[in-house]
Amino acid sequence: MESGRFIGKMRRNDSIRTYQPANLTTLPGPLPTMADKIPDELTAKIQALGKRSPPSDIQQVIERLCLIQPFSADELAHILQQNKKWVKRSYLSSMVRDGILEYTIPDNPKHPSQAYRARNRTG
């Protein structure tokens, strides 16, 4: 739970309480700038991703998205239907560290307008 607030709802399932977030990201609705830019094949791959997809599959989707245009962590979390903190911690940080992605504002990684783009990997 983020910053001590309870945003979701608790439900009982087989006598185990589970947390189900009410809102996965801060972005409402679909992203207006993306609909015509994401190829149908990539859209299908995104829709096929599940909550327990292999990290390599998710990283591949993130890289392909960031080749199209830079995306913020909020936008990527919204597209992947994941929590922003999870996406940053599990994927984006390591992808930047490994040179797959780069910051659009490299001098200030925590800038509120920070976005990620795929590095041009030639060789």
Give your account of this protein's structure.
- The structure is a single chain.
- The protein has 123 residues and is an alpha+beta fold.
- It contains four helices and four strands; from the N terminus they run E-E-H-H-H-H-E-E.
- A hairpin with a 2-residue loop joins strand 1 and strand 2.
- The longest helix has 14 residues.
- The protein is globular.
- The protein starts with 8 loop residues before the first strand and ends in a 5-residue tail after the last strand.
- The end-to-end span amounts to 43 Å
Mean of the pLDDT scores? 79
CATH architecture: Orthogonal Bundle
Number of strands: 4
Order of helices and strands: EEHHHHEE
- Whole-number tally of structural domains: 1
Helix share bin? 25-40%
- Oligomeric state as shown: single chain
Reading off the top of the CATH hierarchy, the class is best stated as: Mainly Alpha
Largest sheet: 2 strands, antiparallel
Computed structural class: alpha+beta
Strand content: 5-15%
Low-confidence stretches: 1-27
Briefly note the CATH topology name.
Answer: Arc Repressor Mutant, subunit A
**What strand line-up does the widest sheet have?**
1-2
User: What form results from the Cα inertia axes?
Assistant: globular
Rg measurement, Å:
16 Å
**Number of H/I helices:** 4
SSE arrangement:
Layout: E1 9-13, E2 16-20, H1 40-48, H2 55-68, H3 73-80, H4 84-97, E3 101-103, E4 116-118
Antiparallel strand pairs: 1-2, 3-4
Helix pairs in contact: 2-4, 3-4
